[in-house]
Description:
This protein has 16 helices and 14 strands. The radius of gyration is 27 Å and the shape is globular. The chain starts with 13 loop residues before the first strand and ends with a strand. A hairpin with a 5-residue loop joins strand 5 and strand 6. It has three domains: 134 residues, Resolvase, N-terminal catalytic domain (Rossmann fold, 3-Layer(aba) Sandwich), CATH 3.40.50; 114 residues, Putative Large Serine Recombinase, Chain B, Domain 2 (Hect, E3 ligase catalytic domain fold, Alpha-Beta Complex), CATH 3.90.1750; 147 residues, no CATH class. It has a four-stranded parallel sheet, sandwiched between helices. The chain has a three-stranded mixed sheet with strand order 9-13-14.
Amino acid sequence: MPKLRAHAVRRLTVRAIAFFFYDPAAPRGEPTTRVRMEGTFRRYCAANHHTLEQSFAFPQGQTTPEEALGEVCRFLEAQRGAPVLVALVDPFELGSSPQAAVETLLKLDSLNAQVVGIEPGQGSPLPVLYAAIAPPEVQAPQPSQRAKNIREAMLQKAARGEGLGKPPYGYRLGESDKLEAAFQEAEVVRLIFRLYVEQGQGIRNIVKELNSQGHRTRRDANWSMVTIRDILRNPAYVGTYRRFGMRIPRSHAAIVDRETFRKAQDLMDSRAPMRRRAVYHPFLLSGLAVCGQCGNNMIGVTRQQTWRNKDGARQSNRYRYYQCQSRTNQSVCQYHTWRDTALEEATLAEVRRQVLQRPELLTTEPPPLRDAVVQSPPQEGFRRRYLAYVKQAAEGAITLSRLRELVERLRREEQAALEAHPAGTEEGSPFTGAALVEESRWDALNEAQQREGLERWVQRIVVAGGAVTVRLRL
């Protein structure tokens, strides 16, 4: 007789912890007591084949969410990046406010913890939190029954590990709707991990190597640093399926072995620069200057260099410069690199030369920018962008890791805007030609006003070799 045991389905367990607040005054047997709630979590983990390692239980009214979650984070930090499932009942217990709960969710994600609600159909707590922080006018209307049925069908497909939407580079959808390796793309993925882990090449060099060998992305474009970084971080290549807040290990065939993937994560973490809460200073010419060779933008780049003098003393300095985006992100085109001050001074000199050639421009002020005619307070704009990012993550369009990156960048921009527009600063300063020509008047403007002045006067800055060509709007 055939050995049926050989064909038995192996069920993989996931390490889980329970996080909840209980009512210390609840009578025995009530569902809010610690004993009853722990039993609920044990049954949930048993039904979903999780291993409940520890319960973080806190009495209501005696411990703040921040204090309780501090213990959870210390536990996760001690796991050194090992994946852990954090199960909870109420998403709002993640913070003292819904937005604070979103921040906690991002913090836990950075510690490689997946947060899931144990209530039926809950999954990721982010949609519930988004609904609480979004004002009524931007909240989506209640879905129809048909929409609910479609979403439920998508959730069931995701639970089975079946592909939804465009598969990641290196994979295609097979006949059973499961991800399967696309041979040529999979070879490129293996090459990327081999160059990074075995040969120790950096992301920039990998981009240069792929583009020089003629490899193209799925969109038939050059490779970029962002694309390579996303591939190195994507757990799909070790067979883990992630969608709608679910994470299913060994859902499909792996392209990269787990040890190689783990080494890649360790390398990326070790090479990641230390993030300081420094003030973010935007580049004055961002979006205005383009490369004269390929037409791509000249982007601002900041580098921190450290060295030792002959006497052993450690020195460091920060350098800011503009570089062709094609060269920076795709390792194509040439090095059209300018120190930020050099390019900005050359641009201002050319603008002033053209203005002085036309005396009537000295008393002329260009019209306001189209998107600045009706300008809302900066805080409102940042708030709208924040809500838009959270909504994308709640709908599964972006990962929590990507949401975390967008929120961090948004905060840096907001800090820069607050410093550029301190309370009491007079707005609406004139930008006549004379204000640009007279250095004392120009230097009296803050960074945001200088930026607006250039945007209103300059249409395009073309950087080619050592020359700068400026085209005015007038």
